[in-house]
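User: what does the whole thing look like in 3D?
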Amino acid sequence: MPKIVDAEARRQEVVEAVFRIIASDGLERASLREVADEAGLAVGSVRHYFVSSDELLVHSFAVVIDRIAGRLEEAYAVVESLDKASAEHDAAVLTLLGQFLPLDEQLAVDACVWMAFRHAARIRPVLEPEAARSHRAVAAVVGRLVMRLMPDGGSIQEHLVTEAERLLATLDGLCMHALLQPEWMTAEVCRDVLTAHLETLVAVPSNR
Amino acid sequence: MPKIVDAEARRQEVVEAVFRIIASDGLERASLREVADEAGLAVGSVRHYFVSSDELLVHSFAVVIDRIAGRLEEAYAVVESLDKASAEHDAAVLTLLGQFLPLDEQLAVDACVWMAFRHAARIRPVLEPEAARSHRAVAAVVGRLVMRLMPDGGSIQEHLVTEAERLLATLDGLCMHALLQPEWMTAEVCRDVLTAHLETLVAVPSNR
DNA sequence: AACTTTTTAGCACAAACGTGCTTGAACCGT
DNA sequence: ACGGTTCAAGCACGTTTGTGCTAAAAAGTT
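Assistant: Here's the predicted 3D structure for the full assembly of 416 residues, as structure tokens:
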């Protein structure tokens, strides 16, 4: 039998190298040579764990999606465990929504990588399936949250879809601005915008 | 004197070629050779009008910013010319906000290009000044609009900033989704989300 | 007709890229 | 101790990129 190496762990190390490169230098710099250097390996070694550059990138995309979706599900479970009217509930909702934003270093890397891959997927067909999965996973959690938060429980299908999409758009927009214009979009502004949005979600206008 | 050619018009043609390439194949494919082919010129010719690849890209970024900002100012002038309570006013506001979204082919190209450059500016320092200018220009219009739409005229500075940033984030998020997930984010959903947002902007919760 | 200056075109080079392929090195079971 | 399998590393080839440089074509002025 061969040399024993935890192959999955090695793959994960390479993926982490990909993340660091994308966060600091962008997706276009995530070449095999750069990734190998960042991971402290040779190009041939990286290619031993990932058949092609495409496979490496698609797998990296999948990993970041799973990480984000996992955090969201976890945070949503907390929300669901609390009483709807309690103050802890509101705090838990803010914590959930904060998982989208680059509020700490780990979240910032994930947000960078996520954004980069989603935008790249518009052009590169290999990334498209994962982009669609990412959208479905996030929309599912946000949809459940909106259903829980809306006063009528989201009974009117059209309003639910609109409000879910509205929250999703605001989140992605906030994430974008926090990544691209960090000097204008501080963590505090993010929080203010989110709380303002939540107030508008609870208080549905009467004329609808 | 030399061969007479309208240099500015030629530059514009090259820029249009850049736009088409970015919209269809992404910014990373906007190389000198690709641009020259798309514009029907030789690489040397393109380089005669743009000293370097960087200058071409920065100038293209500036052009798309001017185009978008121009449309916004134009649409805002219409809004300002109408009575605040009229139905035409609401329609004009929707028209203004629609300038951000890829609702027709021209807007879609501009939105693609704008997004691509803004994201690239995170990594490429040469693009950063234009990205900052773009943010200021758009924020100015949106800020004025929010000030006009808020019931108290945006007299409380913090609320104004928050609401302006909230609208800006929603717009960018909508634009992103419309570009990346066009099958989920139709023009109709965009309109619904925007009208819902405007309702929440007019009806400020009492506890604030 | 000759000259000058702009415009257009193209060559050549170094650098970086993905990938097919080969070569040692490491290590476990026999 | 040995053999077979996996891991690690690297070479080589064809592309593509930006850019410095050269040179031909075009056209108004003299």
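In plain terms: Residues 21 and 29 of chain B are 7 Å apart (CA to CA). The mean pLDDT of chain B is 93.
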